[in-house]
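<instruction>
Derive structure tokens from the sequence
<data>
Labelled lines for chain and fold:
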Amino acid sequence: MRNTKRKTFLTIDNAEELTGVHYTLKHSGKMSGMQSLSTSCLCNKNCLSRVENSNLVCSHCYAQRQMKMYKNLEKCLKKNTEILTTKLLTDEEIPLINAAFFRFESFGDLNNEVQIVNYFRICKRNKHVKFALWTKNPWIIAEAINNGESKPRNLQIVYSSPYLNKCDNKLNKYPFIDKIFTVYTKEYIEANNIEINCGAKSCLSCHKCYIKSKVVYINERCK
């Protein structure tokens, strides 16, 4: 007899109540209308080591500014870090995401292998959604893949260049990277005629970071 048992899914609200993991459903600015799942850059040793270096884009970190303004956001992201880096979510704990596009890490970055495996599981549980992950720590993804994990087909991995005004091309070293995101200052853009293809746009309407295409290099003006 054919097995007609259907998968059961949690809503995001139910999943948050069950697991404590907070999904950000309301963004502003160019992220308006988008949904995301993030951890805290203030709990990430790699983020903290970069923020004092003026040559790095992390010295202009908007996530830190937002968390200082919105203490409840900081509290939620800290809790996300604690959960997502120490516990593997089961299928029953992963919600059905009602969105066309979804972002991992709007405010933080990868901490360890447990975290990226959780993101992989969320993608595979929601095959109808196009996901994108921003990270400056691709070696963590490499560790997971080397240990037998497979990158989901509906996930675009966006390597975020750590340097201002310099595209840090890691495509050859990490072939799972789909796009490279680099931030340039106004002065450098004008002096070197840099094409900005990410700026004061809506991520929801643009979504070039979320889909596989010939556009590999994404350039943004420093805010």
